[in-house]
Amino acid sequence: MPHQNRVIAVRFVAAYPAFATQPDLIGLAREFKPMIDLYTAATPNGHKISIALEELALPYTAHTLNLSKGEPKEPWFLTINPNGRIPAIVDRAEDDFAVFESGAILMYLAEKTGRLMPQDRRGRSQVIQWLMFQMGGIGPMMGQANVFFRYFPEKIQPAIDRYQGECSRLFRVLDSHLREHEFLAGDYSIADIANWAWVRTHRWSGVDVDNLLHLQRWLGQIRARPAVQKGINTPPSVMDRDADDDKARQFAEEARQMVEMGQSRQGGV
Hints:
Layout (H helix, E strand, L loop, with lengths): L2 H13 L7 H9 L4 E5 L3 H13 L3 E5 L10 H4 L9 E4 L5 E4 L1 H12 L7 H31 L5 H22 L11 H10 L13 H11 L2 H6 L14 H19 L5
Helix pairs in contact: 1-2, 3-5, 3-8, 6-7, 6-8, 7-9
C-alpha cells in the first residue's frame, strides 16, 4: 500500500472514530509508523494508558521503563516529564507534543479522538468527576496501602489500617453508585478505565471486595473487553498480584528498595 494511503488511514481513524472498528483501516493505520510513543511500566497508571490506546485503536509504540533502575529519572525522560514518572506520551502527529500525568493523558486521548468522553458539558463533567475520584482518592489511597502493607520495611499497623480502611470506604462508594449504573458516568469512558486499572489490584493492597457485588460485576465486565486484555499486557506484569509466590516477593522487595531509596533522597525523588 502506498505511503500516502497509510498516512491518510492513520489520520482518518483519529479524525473519524466511528470508523475505528473497520479492520482494513485499523490494519493500514498500524502498518504505518505509530503516531503515539508511550513510555510506561506494568503499573495501574501505566495500564490506564495502554488500555485507552487499545480501546481507541490508535497506533502506538510502547517503551517500557525500568523503575527499579531509575530510568524515569534519566535526563532524556525528564524532557518529556519533568516529574520523572510514568506514564507519558509523545504525540508524533502533533509535532512531538508530550503529555504526562495519567489523567491528563486520558483526557487528551479522549479529546483527540472524540471518544470515551462525552462532548456535552454535563456528560463531560460527569466523566471528569469520576476520573478525579480515582486520581485524588482511589490511586493515592491504594498506593499508600501498598507501601505500608507490602513495601515498607517495618509494619506500622495504624498506617496499614488507615489506608486499607479508606480503600474499603472508596470501594463502597463505587459499589453504591454502580448499583444504579452500568458504568461510572453514562457510557463506558476513561473514568471506568482509570478506576478499573487500580481497583482490579485490590488484593495487592490487602483489601477484599467480597461483599461488593455491583463492584464485582463491573470489574468482570470491563476485564472481559478485548482491548482491556491487550492493554493490561502492555507491558505484562512480571508477577501475579493475586499470588504469594517467589515472583511476588521479589517484586515487593524491589519496591521496598525503591521506597527506601526515595526516603534517602532530598524531596523523595
